[in-house]
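Wed. Picked up where I left off yesterday with Major facilitator superfamily (MFS) profile domain-containing protein. The coffee machine is broken again, so keeping this brief.
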Amino acid sequence: NTLTIAYYALSLNTANLHGNPFFNCFLSAVVEMPAYGLSWVMFRWCPRRLSVSSTLFAGGLFILIIQLIPAHLVVLSITFEMMGKFSVSTVFAVVYAYTAELYPTVLRNTAVGACSTASRIGSIIAPYFIYLRTYSVSLPYILVGSLTALTGLLSLLLPESFGMPLPDTISHMQSFPGCCQKRPYVITDNKEQESAAEEMSLARQSVTQN
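Structure written out below (C-alpha cells, as returned):
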C-alpha cells in the first residue's frame, strides 16, 4: 500500500508543480522508461532485499529533501521530485516479481493476486494525500516521504530469494532465510527420494540373498 500511495501520489501531484504542467507530465512519464530498465538490471543481478530497500529509501529521501529546497529554486525541486518518481517506479516494477518469488507454487497465483488487490487500497488513498495541500503544501511530501523511507527500512526484514529455487510448498516458504536466518533451504525432489529408497531396498535384498 505504501508503494502504491507513493507512486500514484507523485503521479497525481505532477499537475501541482511549478512551470508548464504539460511538460511536467511529460517528464513524469519519460522518467519511468529508464526506471523500468534499471529494475530489469537490478532484478537480474542484484539481491531482491537490497534492491527493494535501497530504492524505497532513496525515493523517500528524495521526497523529503524537496522541503529543504528554497521556493525560488523551482527546477531543483522538480528534479528531486522526478528522482523520487524514478526510484518509486523502479521498485514498483521489481516488487511484483519479488512477490511471486516469495510465495510457494501452490499459492503463488492466489497470493500475488491478493497482494495486488490489497495494493489498490493505496491507489484509492493516494488522492487524499494530495488534498492535504489545502492545509499545508509540505504535508503530502512529509507523509509520503516518511512512509516510503520507513517502508524501505522495514523491507530489510523480508526474506531473500535471489539465486534460490522457487518454493513449491508452504514448508519451503517457511524455510526462506529472513533477517537473522542465513542458511538457505534445499528442495529435494520426491522422485529422487523414491529412487534412492528403491536403491537402498535393492541393495539390502542383494545383501540378504548373498
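Quick read: DSSP finds nine helices and no strands in the chain.
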